[in-house]
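Could you show me just one protein sequence together with its fold in token form as a worked example?
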Amino acid sequence: MGSTFPYAVLLLVIRSVFSDDISDDRPCAPLQFDQDSVVCVCNATYCDSIAGSDGIPPPVNPIMYFSSWTSSRDGQRLNYTMGSFGKFQPNKYVYTAGNETFQTILGFGGAFTDAATITMNSLSKNTRNNLLNSYFSSTGIGYTVGRVPMASCDFSKQIYSYDDTDGDLSLDKFSLTEEDIIFKIPAIKDAMSVSPRNLSLFGSPWSAPAWMKTNNNMTGKGTLKGSPGGSYFKAWAQYFVKFIQAYKDHGIDIWGITAQNEPSDGMITNFPFQCMGWTPEMQRDFIASDLGPALEAAGLGHVKLMILDDDRVWLPYWAEVVLKEPASAKYVAGIAVHWYEDLFVPTSALDLTYKQFGDKYFLLNTEACEQDLVNKDRSVLLGNWYRGERYFRDILEDLAHGVSGWVDWNLALDRTGGPNWQNNLADSPVIVDAEKDEFYKQPMFYAMAHFSKFVKPGSRILSYTKNFTEDNDVEAIFYTSSEQFGVSVGANFINTNVNESVSITIKDPSNYGMISFDLPPKSFVTFAWWRA
């Protein structure tokens, strides 16, 4: 690390203005299962928390100090240290923070699925509160985005829509269900009550009611009956309006919607769970003729409408079809992507999309999860470090290529990776053991934390230069934001080296020296400092 300093004096200064005393930081209660790292155990009386109410401590004069938070395979979880800028120490890995800024960050979060909120309710009140605080409170990891499935998806206990009355094109029978009233809405309102920031909530539909579809089924290959501008498309547009209004009636403002979850799924014969097929041309015409006008007429033109909501393999073509047509483009705010083919589809898909449309439309990753499609009994791997690395690297990669935020899938699941009516089990950053009234924070949770806690809404991705030979051991992203105390700079690093620490040097020309730091093997490290 950098040069030493009598930190006790400095900490006294910080504590005088820092709302959450660093001494109140609660460490991880580690537990090892059969994987290569640990989970952190939380229950009704104890849960780990993060030092500092909002990331970087306030500056002191002179501005010569940096903060760092480290998580590692060997058990560190957002361990906090402070260091001082020192003299340049040349090594292979040197990074220089620049001044050019790119996309603005919208935020990070997860989905309030039926499965997640049912699982939360299986806990005692105090344990459930600790779970929500872990994600949303000032001592948690700062989630600011939430996805809300519109009616059922595979992570539900049953198939249902908000209007299962055949032929009800006027949607007179539209109503929220017990899944909303008992589970999702209370969880959302409790999250809102502990969050120091506004939550940007967006709805996503998996399928229209079966009677609206060509296959008369909410699963399998099928599209809406008729064509854009027709009665079924008009009714489906009103379904969005009624969903937004119904949540508003319960005190919840919906910030955005996606036009369809994974529209390519509904073009697959015998697709096993809720879906509905769209081509980009169909979505373009639906938005122009039906959905956009319906939102405007209902006074909901401010709701952020996102297209695609599917894997990046469809980019930039899908965006080009919808956004190069003025009649549809005028209603659209963003482009939603999923991560499931990111290992196979190059980042050039994002780059080409951002280059064409990034000045007007944001890109947002809206779904990601780890699962084992072959051996479903191994979908949940408690303490698996590689899955945390996958999250961290994908978020970093997305941010480096124009994406403005990253939204995980289920906020919590049970020990099996459910409930899921189709047995499409998955892993989650938080796994609940209801019998023990406790939950486990996975390495994925802390991978999310290094972004959601520190790369706050309104931050800008920042340019930087690096001078090392090309390899994959170390990757980084830099970001900046304007705060009440001035301009802050942050950097997130990942070291995937199995056995060796990696020495890095960070230079900010606006400050008094260099940050010298050894990244532990298999680690995530966040740095934060103030520009002079």
Observations:
- The CA atoms of residues 85 and 483 lie 21 Å apart.
- Residues 1-23 have pLDDT under 50 and may be disordered.
